[in-house]
Amino acid sequence: MLPNNTSEQRRFSKKWILSMVALLLAFSVLSACGSKKEGAATASPSTSPSATAAATGNPSDVIATYKEGGKITRGEFNSFISVNKMFSPQLAQFMTDPAFQQDMLKQMVTFRVLSAKVDDKVKADADKQVTEQMKAITDYFGKQEGGMDKQLKDNGIELKDIESLMKMSFYTMGSMESKITDQAVQDAYKEQAATHAFDIATVSHILISLKDAATQKDLRTKEEALARAKEVKGKLDKGGDFAALAKEYSDDPGSKDAGGTYKDADINQWVPEFKQAASTLPLNTISDPVESSFGYHVMKVESRSTKPLDDTLKTQIKSQLAEKSLSEFAEKEYPNLIQTNNLPKPEASPAPAASPAASPAASPAAK
């Protein structure tokens, strides 16, 4: 519904770290392992006798080779997935899953192949970003319990392993982004704008909550909240000052001291009921109470528009298109690149038995 300032601060405090790990999403690692997670809580050695093969043997063992003389050793592969796990601890539950290991191998080969072909300009720009990110990462983890050394030790990696993955990531993405044309960005913007992806609105509201935002303790019943919201609307209909009433009545800590207003806000960040009202209410009129999971809102929509294609949005769209190109490259080209692959393979699911209704012999037409 309303922007959660606390969670936003936590998210942006790690933004410089997550920008590198976000490349995982281009390959949908977690979704690929989703069925495994649903069928069994976590992957375990008993699930597949070969599931732990990636973690056994010598670090110098070659587990995969690819065209142009490329090879990946067990030690290199384990460092690659351990760095990813350091930034995304939820990956730990998939470490012994053959499907996850195969997906990570696909990433590693793709990154290596593409990053090896970048031009000097892309490499120079990427090196600057890597230097900045490495400093930010060491500063961030240095403030955690045990410091950076503990993080490295717990994950069985060295600082150079992080830098290696970051270079591959930034080189790869820099190369893919350099191939995205301005016209492609324009076309993607128009396409997404047509689906209201960039809709923004300036909305003032007064929230009458059912629960305290900080403690989640009950404040009032649903009936009491609705009656209070109607009281607020009545005062506004009589010419009451919206900002003053927001300060007095609103339970939204993110807006009550700003006149209840969210200016040029992305409407897609809000819960469906609030988003719908922000999209459809007549401009500059006081709404009836709008119910959402947070309580009741008395709203006034002051403006609606589409976010312009500025430099920030261009960069965002270019990254989206680059990630899509990266994913497509991995899916189409990886099978032609890989030559040997000694990692365990996912067990094939048995084909479902035909149901009586699906059997020709069971069909009346077959008689």
Automatic annotation (TrEMBL):
Q: Which UniProt keywords are given for this protein, alphabetically ordered?
A: Isomerase, Rotamase
Q: Which InterPro entries match?
A: PPIase_dom_sf, PPIase_PpiC, PrsA_foldase, Trigger_fact/SurA_dom_sf
GO: which molecular function terms? isomerase activity
Residue ranges of domain PpiC in the record: 203-303
Instruction: Please give the superkingdom of this protein's source.
Output: Bacteria
Low complexity composition bias: residue spans: 40-56, 348-367
- Segments of this protein annotated with the region Disordered: 38-57, 332-367
> Which stretches are annotated as coiled coil?
none
Q: What PANTHER family does the annotation carry?
A: PEPTIDYL-PROLYL CIS-TRANS ISOMERASE HP_0175-RELATED, PEPTIDYLPROLYL ISOMERASE
Q: What is this protein called?
A: Peptidylprolyl isomerase
